[in-house]
Amino acid sequence: MMKILLTASAAAIAVAMSAGSAAARDQIQIAGSSTVLPYASIVAEAFGENFEYPTPVVESGGSGAGRKKLCEGVGENTIDIANSSSRIKQSDIDLCASNGVAEIQEVRIGYDGIVFASDINGEAFAFTPADWHAALAAKVVRDGQVIDNPNKTWADVNPDLPAQDILAFIPGTKHGTREVFDEKVILDGCEENGTMEALMAANGGDEDAAEDACTTLRTDGVSVDIDGDYTETLARIDANKNGIGVFGLSFYQNNTDKLQVATMNGVVPSVESIASGEYPVSRPLYFYVKNAHLDVIPGMQQYVEFFVSDEIAGPDGPLAAYGLVSDPELAKTQEMVANRTPMGPLN
Questions:
Q1: Nearest CA to 136 among 193, 218, 220?
Q2: Band of residue 179 on the pLDDT scale cut at 50, 70, 90
Q3: Which of 26, 82, 199, 294 is deepest in the core (most CB within 10 A)?
Q4: What is the DSSP letter of 138?
């Protein structure tokens, strides 16, 4: 890991806390998204090298699990920050409030894309969301009727795709990536291929029931939930050459010697196509801060400001070099962090 050289303005952040602010725990505790994990690890290491505070402890476990841990309460036996690859839910905010966590900051660190990659020596794929829904959904429409999904190969789904057995390794339900996959791929695909309309009719016009049916996936072994991180997905593809995995863009970019990426709606995923909005399956990445700990855990405010500084999260920083798409509204986030602005209820 390279040493991060700070400008004078960024170095000014590194002021020591007064002796009267000592806490029983002096190390920042962070948990959550496996997608955000490598970015947070880069920042934690740089923070430990450049500040007079211990290097923060960053653990994975999934976005939902991290947010749940954040909301367990206030005190040194609870975590300080939750990383998340999907936005917090109102149910999380309500849980926090019920446990005395009154103020939470929502910090958007940038953007990432969800990509679909397979063995580098295998067939090439050009997907649409409709293809993925038709491949993995439990129910599909044939001749106007809703039936159990009979598709065995990708060519059964779309004759323009290879006649390769369908086998998909997708994030498990505790991962924030799964929420985005369900919404921007499976649900969008359900609407695109006409299944949503048929399911609406079959459910008496109940949109919620139709959406639930849209995102209910097969249980016959062709759709495999991966509860670990992207390294587990890669290992599954190494062992099953027909497999296609769902990854974050940055993980794929760091494994191009093993993986080839598919297009989605004709667009190649890249930092440029995500930044422009052209690539259809992109998502913001976040972390959530327990404000009650900011003046208790030494260095916590400094860590949060350091993470979103231009030197770290800007377009020329180490996070962008790893694959994060810098947030064009980073200055607004910096102002919010400096003011410790808590989020309100979700609309």
A1: 218
A2: confident
A3: 82
A4: S
Q: Which residues contact 220 (CB under 8 A, 6 or more apart)?
A: none
Helix segments in the chain, DSSP class H: 8-11, 37-50, 63-70, 90-98, 129-136, 154-157, 176-181, 188-192, 195-202, 207-214, 230-239, 249-253, 271-275, 300-307, 310-313, 318-322, 330-339
Q: Does the pLDDT of residue 273 top 50, yes or no?
A: yes
- Tokens 């038709």, located at residue: 134
Query: Where do we find the tokens 């500084």?
Result: 309
Question: Residue 341 in 3-state DSSP?
Answer: coil
Concatenate the DSSP letters of all residues of 264-313 into one string: ETTB---HHHHHTT-SSSEEEEEEEEEGGGTTTSTTHHHHHHHHTSHHHH
Please compute the mean of the pLDDT values over residues 247-251 and round it to a whole number: 89
CB atoms within 10 A of CB 77: 10
Instruction: Categorise residue 197: left if φ over 0, alpha if ψ from -120 to 50, beta otherwise.
Output: alpha
- Domains of the chain, with CATH numbers? 8-111+283-339 (3.40.190.10), 113-282 (3.40.190.10)
Is the separation of the CB atoms in 120 and 126 below 8 Å? no
With cut-offs at 50, 70 and 90, classify the pLDDT of residue 24: low
Pairing mode, if any, of strands 263-264 and 81-84? Answer: unpaired
- pLDDT tens digits for range 309-329: 999 999 999 999 888 999 989
